[in-house]
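Internal QA ticket QA-208
Title: Verify multi-chain structure generation after dependency bump
Assignee: T.L.

Test input:
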Amino acid sequence: MIVKYNSMELMVCVASRELEDGSTLAVGTGAPCAAAMLAQKMSSPNLSILFEAGSVSPQLPEMPISVGDSRAGHKAVMVSTMGAIMETCQRGYVDYTFLGGAQIDMYGNLNSTYIGGTHQKPKVRFPGSGGANDFGSFCWKMMVLTVQDARRFVEKCEFITTPGWLQGGNSRYEAGLPEGTGPYKVFTNMAVMDFEPESKRMRITSINPGYSIKDVQDNCGFELLKAPQITETEPPTEIELKILREEVDPHRYVIGR
Amino acid sequence: MKEQVIMNETGPTPMNVIGAGRSELYTDPDPDHARAFFHQKTKKMVNKVMPLAKAVEMFVHDGDYLSLGGFGGNRAPIAACHEILRQGRKNMGFAGHTTTHDFEILSAGEVFDRVDAGYIVGLEARGLSPCARRYMQTGKVRVTEWTNYSLSARLHAASMGVPFIPARNLLGTDTFEYSASKIIECPYTGKKLSLHPALYPDVAIIHVHEADVYGNSRIRGIMKSDNDLARASKRVIITCERLITNEEIRRSPTQTTIPYFLVDAVCEVPFGNYPGNMVYEYFSDEEHLREWLHVEEDPVVFKKFLKKNIYDCSNHHEYISKNGGMEKMLKLRTIEYLLHKEVD
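Actual output:
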């Protein structure tokens, strides 16, 4: 039987499989939150979610609209401060974070500050770091979930809001960021990427069903490296889709996009 | 095991500053200046209840540096934001410490001309505010970049009474380059650390669940940085969902998050966070927040919307009456109550 799904459903399902039971995750609203909720309902019931507004291990009744709203704090084990959450990350207690941005470069650096013009008079102003620079600096593994698009995947971010592997090689740790942290995986509608261990450049590790390596490269503004073995991404299962559609996001806030 | 040498033979190692952000520090981080201010501030336990309009008139001045409590639209002093627009405050400094609907309102009034940017312009999953974006793209607003944690840390340094605290964010990024942070080498470990200068706002406005007439306040749910904000600010206005007695405060002091001597004014403003989400009280009015984002697309339409909803209203209740009144409030209360109801 062929299971039908859209690209957002695929990205959420594939990303959710990374979040193993018993791990900790700092996350925002939207698709990453859907991935976390799906993981909890599939095989990681004890995945601990932390929101920067202060809530610790909530049991989310539905998708929060804000990481500081009543849903985001629902049945939490504790509600605390932004400092307490960020310092939990800085202390090394938090395994994963999911981030995004208007631009991502070949080293996984992210821009969510501005595009075009100057810093003082930008053409398009975005929110800035928010908690992204903090999570991207402190959490062990940073992951990105975004649409594959050459305007988004750029050779060099106009502004590095959040650190990836910076200029590649050992530059991230030379800048003083905590040892052992850094970008881990990138999930798009076309592929899954990781970072080559020496150069720290983005490389393709698996291709989503229906796409080719050429498709991915054509929709990327820089040359992607290729892992020694490129596999085909396991598509969403019937049970993943059922839970995602019926329990995680019944109003289709994320998967309807 | 060999003991680690912290001091070398010639004496203590000087702290080595190895980098500095290029942007402006809008506030004075000197703890002695802050101490002198806090010293002369009255600590009398007197009745501080007054109408919101009077509190804004007395304690929020043109040119002041302002910081708001809550998390953007959640437990945020929205009624006070409207009042600031009605009174036409200008040239203010503003802490964009996870600011969302509050930033949107203050942008509409062009209230500030300089911003410490943690999170600005956006409303999280709802999208970006066209009005806030237009204002930030005029070039009229000076911006120093920070992060959400940076602003927490800066308020915490101020509440500790020290000039800065170190952290491990910002390093290697343009967020640092456009901040007013400095990078030092740690005198104990040699590691690179970003410094966060104390942020002492001139005035803070914090919306809370309950307060007594003296300003002793209770906050339920997430705190964000409001414990530190109340301690760091020179003047503090509390707006509350309801007033409670001092006896009730003393019966359960564990629940007090802000003690009276930090507070300058107490204003009872039920539903003062509408259209935002006040945890355990009422949920956000998503339809109305969408309406804001929609009308902002056309500046002419938006001007009429602001006139109706802010400038022609004498207070927050008039705004609420124009947008569904008590019927709407009860509906939002039901959503919030049912969310927290135990399901067996």
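Spot checks passed. Chain B touches chain A through 65 residues (CB under 8 Å).
Status: verified.
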